[in-house]
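go over whats below:
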Amino acid sequence: MTATAVAAGSVAVSVTAAPTASAAADALTLSLSSPLIGTRTVTLTCEPTGGTHPAGDAACQDLIAANGDIARIPPYQLGGCGGYYDPTVASAVGHWRGLPVNYTNTFSNPCVANIVTGGHVFRF
């Protein structure tokens, strides 16, 4: 299954999932990369929560509610971002309930990446 959509301040979202023979752990490697922040990378596992993600519990709650599809997580409603431009690539690779995850999206800055994806998954 492949889905493509355009999010606010983004170039494109692409999520690809295909069944695998064995059920893999809910484990993702998440990255943010921009000219101003460089590259930040964390790991996240869910059920149980683990990895290096500083907001792992909240990020896992968002992912569980969206069945692992970051593009389906509703935007965070209580935040706002400044108007600075720092093109930021947000990515997630790994597995969710046995399905491979490959998410990449470009946002106008790291704050927008965080807000558009629910306020937790890319909060690091």
